[in-house]
Amino acid sequence: ITVKVPGLILQDQGKSPVLCIGEEQPKNCFTELQVLKGHFDIVRFLVQIDDFRCASAGDDGLVLIWNIETGERLQELRGHSQQITAITTFVCRSDVTAHPSLITASSDRTLSLWDPDTANRIQTISDLQSSVKCLLVLERLSLWVSGGEELCVWNKDFQLQCHRQQHSDTGITALIELPKNCLAAAMDKEIVIHRLTLSTDSSVSVSEIHRLSEHQDQIRALISVNDGLFASGSHAGELILWDSISWTTQATMHILWEESQASTQTEIRLGAQKPSEMSIQHLSTNGKVRSAEAVGSGLYVYNVVSRTVVAYRKAAHDSNVLHTTLLSDSEVMSCSEDGSVRMWEIQDLPLPAEPASAGFFGMWTFGRSSKQSGPQSKKVVDIPNLRTLELTGDLIGHSGAVQMFISFKEKGLVTCSTDHLLILWKNGDTQSRLRSLALFHKLEENGGL
Amino acid sequence: MIGSPDLLPFTGSEGFEEERAKQEAWSLPEEFSVPLGPSAQPWSSRAQFHRDFILVAEFSEQVGPRPVLTIPNEQKVIGSFDLNHFSVRIMSVDYQASGPGHTPPSSPGPRLSFSEDSRVMLGDSAEDAFAYVQHLTLYDLEARGMVRPFCIAYVCSDQVKLMENFSELSTGFSQASDSLKTGNRQAFSTELQRKLQELEFRRLTLLQNKELQEVKDESAEGKPEELDVLEYSILNHRELLRQVTSYPNRKLQQPDFLPYDPADSLTDLTALQPPEPCSYLPTSSSSSSPSSYRSENLLKPLEELCNSYFFSLMKEQLVDTERRLRGDRSVLRTCHVTHSLSRRLKLTNFLFELWSPREAEEEEGERAEMEAQGVSGSKTEVQSERQSAEVLISCLEEIPIKLVAEKADFSAAAEMTGSMSSGDSIEVLGTEKSYQTQRVIAETSTGTADVCVRCAAIDAGVRRVRDYAKRANSEDSIEVLSTSESIFPDDLTAITEEEAEHHPLTNGFKDEEELANGWKSDELPPERMKMTWATSENERDDPVNKGESLGEPAADVDDSVTKRIKDIQEDVAPEKAHEPSEGVDLFPRRLRLFSQLHVKLAPPTPVAEMGRRSPPCPPLRLLSVDEMSDCSSFTGSSDTFSPTQGNHSSTQLGRRRRKAGLRALRFIKHHSFSQHAIFCLLSGRPLVVVGGDESLVRKQVDGLSLFLPSPGSDGSAVMPCLTTPLQLSDLLTWRLIGIQRSSSSLSSTILLSVTRYSRYLALLDLDQKTLQSPTYSGSLLSQLAEPHTGFRGGLTYLLHLESCLAALASKALLHTLLAGGVGTERDCLHAQGSFSSECDYRVMHHLSDLIKQRHAGRGPPFLKFSYCSVQLHKNTFAT
């Protein structure tokens, strides 16, 4: 379950100035960077292949494999003629080994399976009806699913098992796996639940079994929180927490706008905003308790168990937040269209707690109907453990929007951006030690200086 | 006539050093003593030129020796030095002697001799003018004997400098001479072709006339003869053309030989040169004979004797040589030492620009070569001696420069005697002629000797390298200090075996070619050249030799040669015989020699290094004292070098660095925040210099670039003027960036991009005199950049800076090796007490990172930074 708070408008600097941390960032351990060049268009996707490799893909149709320990480019997967629309790793499990491979989908209406070790294109499907927008690997079933205007189920040998035409303008934009061989597919304002049926002769069929139509606007984000819950966020700033098995609503949240001057109705103010200002851009979860979400340029951390907002920052970035990750229980990282990556720490509020902050958002437990009743939003005040998101560091380097990042823990962080670059951020002290070891190793090999 | 008054005071039976000691002790009256060497003040010189220069002179058959070209061609360099007079002196050496065993050509007709150059050291101690001279001959159809003698001389006021840099001079001059001769052969073949065409045409006309006459049935008795002469002439010219065009074949095996296509030459050069009116009359008996020489015709200037490309190449090579040898001995030697030492510091020498990788490549190749030869330990000595022996042979194979036509012999001989009889007294210590004779005698007299004895003899000779003596001076004397052909008889005995194979010197053209291929002297490593030279030099200084030659001081050339042979006979035998037994006599002398060695040779290793470098091409040369004077003022001298010389990047480096040193010094003296800025450079934080005046920005960047560690092979880490908005990847490439501030929108975009990355940068604003950077506090940089430093000259400061940076680099290496890998390196270093502050630690850390990355790093470059506060520093110094 997530909490949403409307992001502030950028121009509204007077009231809520954008955060600036300054140059002294003792908690920021990223003191070294490498620029990884190779793409010549926007880089949109990053996928971790194993603990030292990652793949990047973007609008130039290229997939590049990088060694994040050294920054070297290992492979270049060429084959797609148009932009990559989805990429995922697919582990081919044999009896002994698990060999990672990559599945990519492109606007040229092809799907490809790649071997990242050799850059070989193992499989290609090129006669698709439409381009694929999302991919989901069902490792348990050795199947994978592609979503677009139609939903297709494939086996590991790239053979089409079954497909189902969707009747929607936008097609499937997101797919998650649910228990009991079910899939949730986000299509426009609806979440469609499909069930896969595996017959005894290993043929697969897919059938639509339910539609969830609680959202008022286009669904932007769909994630699986844990085995029992999944969450979805809409363009209008609604966040709904669903039960994975009964598909019932567990909690609903809607962003309200800060009441600044006159106490006008929320609805009106909402209409006055740019849509993206409140749109839920990205949801992420650490799978246990908390989920982070990016709403407009704000950032919110929600406790799924207590159904409460843990911490929030309504103007975390200068511009829309595109990707967030909960690095640990207390650390959040976000990247934004403003070209920066920011690191946050969830800290206890110094007393007294920020009382006024309660007014920033409202919370309704069930149904939109309650949204009309403004006073209920005061519920937040009751939350005793509201904490703050403190900025602990920022990474400046990209000259365009940072699309995505992947953390390799202590090995570093990879960010990709519209400026065609990837940046590898590392801990300088660690790297220095590693280089020392490398130097000693080399000297030993050469038998001296 | 060829007496040697100079040598008289030293030719006593005892050594020169003792002589001097005695003179000092007894303090002879002024009129009896000969002034020894320069006065106590080492910078004073009697030389009338102000700097060393290169002189190209010609022995013109019309006006005698005359200067043709000087490099550099500036009056302020040459001063009041009499070039004409000096040309007479250096051209008055017997460089054209012919060997006795010269066989007549097998084929009839004229014959071209392709000779190797002769290398001579000459000195005029009266004027403190010493020269290394390389004589060469060029071909000119119109000249007497078709030969024009030239020489290239490096004129220097310091004799020792010449000797120390002999190998470099020899290499440089050989290159230049090769270029010149190649160009000349091409021009000569063109000339021949044109002449042939002309003759053919004439012959055709004659034939037609003859037919006409026959038709008319008139008697024309003179005509057939004329036709014969013409046909003979054609044959001769064809033969010459064949010879000159076939010459490149024997040289092609040399990697640096630049062949030319004789087919092209005609079309090329006829287009270039205006067609001359036909000056030859068919009545002349033979154009190749000296009688065709007509003095009323002015001979072609040097420029026309040589293809223009090769002529400019030759000039460039000479300019290069001159630049590389600029400065006095101490400067050159310091450079050599610095280079040879920094070259060995493979781990750190890339940090500060003390050497160039281009040089390293050359040296790598050379070292590989050396290793391939497998020289090690005691073998080295023997082998090098063997090599030096080979040099000796090559000296013997010089071929006289002379046209060997039937009719030419007489006149050539006449010309030679002419050159001998120039007015000044000349001492010729060794010519090919004399050594051809000597060798035979040495061979016969010693026969085969024990190898060990021979080696010992040579060894002794080699060790006496530095045992040269200051010559006394007399008004009109030229001393031939040494020639490459002068050979110590001891050495000759050592080479009898090898010699036997190569003895038939000039049986025919083919043999000649083979020999030249096999033993070309300038192919040999300079070290060996030096040894030969040193060995031969030794001969003259040998007191025994001198003592004996004293007997007949007024000998003429021929006498002196025969006398010398006698000397050698006497000399060789005792040396051989007494080497083991005559310990009492020999030892004191040797000992004394060794003690001199220690004084004069310090430090011995670098000297050896110097000798080994081939081709010696140190990129960093500092300038001589007289040149330094103009940089001690802050005005900064304007660049006097023409842009065409700018392509010699390696030699330009020294000058550039000197200027940069001055600018760096000014920066330190005039800016209170200089240490902060230098700290940024040394700790890897890119420094951006912004200013309204582009040239000022560039100069500032240039000055600061001295502090930039690991600037890259060609300064690739420096961006003197940024013209595109800054990007992050630029910061990984450039660590020193200049930006011109202007009113254009581009400029503001660039400045905006700079502020974006202000976290990673330091910003030096020249207009506001401010610096935005972290604050430095520590002790590491206090010596490097002391604002109240007493340094005033750019070069002095540069030297100081270089030593500071070298110390820093070695500290960094220590840091790398000590602290690397250990978990708590910082504690470790703090425990050492090496660095008092965090800032110093960061500098060390950065340098250490650079070392690690260079030697063990993979992947793209990285930018390391720190999150620390940035202050705006204002300049508090009044400027």
TrEMBL record, chain A:
Cited Gene3D superfamilies: YVTN repeat-like/Quinoprotein amine dehydrogenase (2.130.10.10)
* Superkingdom field: Eukaryota
* WD repeat copies, ranges: 55-76, 102-124
GO CC terms, sorted:
lysosomal membrane
Q: What biological process terms from GO does the record include?
A: regulation of autophagy
Name the InterPro entries on file.
WD40/YVTN_repeat-like_dom_sf, WD40_PAC1, WD40_repeat_CS, WD40_repeat_dom_sf, WD40_rpt, WDR41
Question: Which keywords does this Swiss-Prot/TrEMBL entry list?
Answer: Repeat, WD repeat
**This chain belongs to which protein, by name?**
WD repeat domain 41
What is the originating organism of this protein? Nothobranchius furzeri
Upper taxonomic lineage: Eukaryota, Metazoa, Chordata, Craniata, Vertebrata
Name of encoding gene: WDR41
Automatic annotation (TrEMBL), chain B:
Instruction: Name the segments for region: Disordered.
Output: 275-294, 361-382, 535-554, 634-655
UniProt keywords, alphabetically: Autophagy, Cytoplasm, Guanine-nucleotide releasing factor
* Bias kind Low complexity: ranges: 279-294
| InterPro entries assigned to the protein according to its UniProt record, in alphabetical order | FLCN/SMCR8_DENN, Folliculin/SMCR8_longin
Domain UDENN FLCN/SMCR8-type as annotated: residue spans: 44-852
Q: Where in the cell is it found?
A: Cytoplasm
Q: Does the keyword Manganese apply?
A: no
Q: Identify the Pfam families for this entry.
A: Folliculin
GO BP terms: autophagy
Q: Which PROSITE patterns match?
A: DENN_FLCN_SMCR8 (PS51834)
Polar residues bias spans? 634-652
Q: Which GO terms describe its molecular function?
A: GTPase activator activity; guanyl-nucleotide exchange factor activity
- This protein's GO CC annotations: cytoplasm; guanyl-nucleotide exchange factor complex
**Can you tell me which family this protein belongs to?**
Belongs to the SMCR8 family.
Name of protein: Smith-Magenis syndrome chromosomal region candidate gene 8 protein-like protein
Q: Which organism is it from?
A: Nothobranchius furzeri
Lineage, broadest ranks: Eukaryota, Metazoa, Chordata, Craniata, Vertebrata
| Gene (name only) | SMCR8B
